[in-house]
Amino acid sequence: MAFCGVTFTEEKRGFEIFPTVSAARDFDAEEDAKVFEKAMKGMGTDERKIISIVANRSTEQLKEVETKFKTLFGEDLRKMLEGELKGNFEKVVIGRFHGKIEYQAYILRKAMKGAGTDEETLIDVICSKNAHEMGKIKDDYKDMYERDLVKDLESETSGDVGRILVSLATANRETKEPDHKLAKEEAQMLFDAGEDAWGTDEKVFNQIFATRSFGQLKLTFLLYRSIASKLIFESIEKEMSGKLKLAFLTIAQYISDPITYYSEVIYTSMDGMGTNDDRLIRAIVSRCEIDLKTVEGRYNKLHDTKLVKRIQKETSGDYEKILVALVSC
Hints:
This protein is mainly α. It has 20 helices and no strands. The two termini are 29 Å apart.
């Protein structure tokens, strides 16, 4: 999926990034556990009380509440919430109980479990992670599901898309300092394999995109522009299609400008007919404790409508309320 009309440039990360959700100062796990119990007691559910806690506590605090709930009431809070809630509202609430890395493993498993495979989810998660993050996701995946992530990807994906996902999931991306000579050589290789070739040699793109450090790739992309007289994003748009194009664009766009990348994931999830709720939820839940306030600011700068107003237009009910709460904290 392309991000039309948005210019991706190398992001200078000398500025501070801000989350929208942080740890509550006056936190009482026992009191929160009692609020949850009252919210689900008897007929009906008090979604307002659930939102007030879920949108205003860090994940670590929510896990403390979960433990305290079991101690006080002898029941599993997460399972009770799954029984009481439904739809997209449930997805957001349950997502908030997973740690940052744990959540990535959780949505990867959901994307491959059962009939069919959600390649868009796999691409969103795997193609936007460095080697350290990917290694931690692999470990959490194994701990949570007693399964090997790479083997599952090999089983559930195929072709060029499967190849790049498996390559990245090995978490063996280099961490070396950028080498100008290598960047120039590989920029030329990418040009020769795409723009200057009849057809595209995807294996060359795979080897370079999956192996080199983020810093090395940034330099390669910069030198590519001087060779090809166009941005690497433009060449990928021209030379690839479908999910393979999405995979390579995700890598290039995230590495070049991660804040704009996430602002545009959110934008495209609500663009056109209908809303891609799963993608919208993934982006907001994934980034709310990392940099969502900064992402929101970039979104507001790039688009005519503020993010909160767009969410209110595209969603409704308790689902709308919890998304707005997470963005507006």
